[in-house]
């Protein structure tokens, strides 16, 4: 049986399809597994990073050094595709990882904006949300960290996809608002709508997220994540 977590790994991997030789930077286990799966299967040109200063191979071994100057060149020239997390995300793709509540007196302090503004304006950024809920998918983010389509400037701004534990979302609508692109098997449109705090664009027919191939399943289970970390991030 294919687990929900394995569908999520495949959905994350698909974010890097046809990207060519770009730096794939992922911020969480499932999205990292997705980047590694993409490189091992249909995107061999991807460059993988350890998140700091090294380029790593398929087995996690160090293959090269990525000087900070070269890293910044990739970041500001559209040659990196990041998959970040989101404490909040809205219909336009604005993301918040800084604070919950009013900026003057927030109810909760989070990571801060970090590199989100530079990431989103200068290279493609997708998002991975392991627990889809109205607290995350909100009408309006409390603070903009990552820039959405209604505030975007620059030639490299692009949000290819948002992946959650319920489905896959994109912004392929006339007004660049979030659309339900696919459902993970076992999830209904009504469940997604109930877990989303804004009106989501939903096509008349919504496909299911594609199944991993037999080869991809073997890679996920035996090579990329033999300890089953994915199932701790995504509950069945």
From TrEMBL:
Q: Which domain of life is it from?
A: Bacteria
- What is the E.C. number? 2.8.3.-
Q: Does the keyword Cell inner membrane apply?
A: no
Kindly report, in one word, the top-level EC class recorded for this enzyme: transferase
The answer to whether keyword Transferase applies is yes
Alphabetical list of SUPFAM superfamilies matching this protein:
NagB/RpiA/CoA transferase-like
Q: Name one GO molecular function term.
A: transferase activity
Record-given protein name: CoA-transferase
Instruction: Give the source species.
Output: Streptomyces solicathayae
Q: What is the lineage of its organism?
A: Bacteria, Bacillati, Actinomycetota, Actinomycetes, Kitasatosporales
């Amino acid at each position: 049986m294919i687990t929900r977590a394995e569908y999520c790994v495949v959905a994350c991997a698909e974010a890097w399809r046809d990207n060519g030789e770009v730096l794939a930077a992922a911020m969480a286990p499932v999205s990292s597994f997705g980047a590694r799966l993409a490189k091992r299967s249909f995107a061999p040109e991807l460059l993988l990073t350890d998140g700091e200063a090294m380029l790593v191979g398929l087995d996690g071994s160090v293959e090269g050094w990525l000087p900070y100057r070269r890293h910044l060149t990739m970041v500001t020239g559209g040659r990196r595709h990041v998959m970040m997390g989101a404490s909040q995300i809205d219909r336009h793709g604005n993301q918040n990882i800084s604070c919950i509540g009013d900026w003057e007196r927030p109810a909760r302090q989070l990571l801060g904006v970090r590199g989100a503004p530079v990431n989103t304006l200068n290279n493609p950024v997708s998002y991975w949300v392991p627990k889809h809920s109205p607290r995350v998918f909100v009408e309006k983010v409390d603070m903009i960290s990552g820039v959405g389509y209604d505030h975007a400037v620059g030639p490299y701004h692009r949000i290819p996809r948002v992946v959650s534990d319920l489905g896959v979302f994109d912004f392929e609508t006339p007004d660049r608002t979030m659309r339900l692109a696919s459902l993970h098997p076992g999830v209904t449109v009504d469940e997604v709508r109930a877990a989303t705090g804004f009106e989501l664009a939903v096509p008349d027919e919504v496909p299911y997220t594609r199944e991993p191939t037999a080869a991809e399943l073997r890679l996920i289970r035996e090579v990329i994540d033999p300890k089953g970390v994915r199932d701790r991030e995504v509950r069945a």
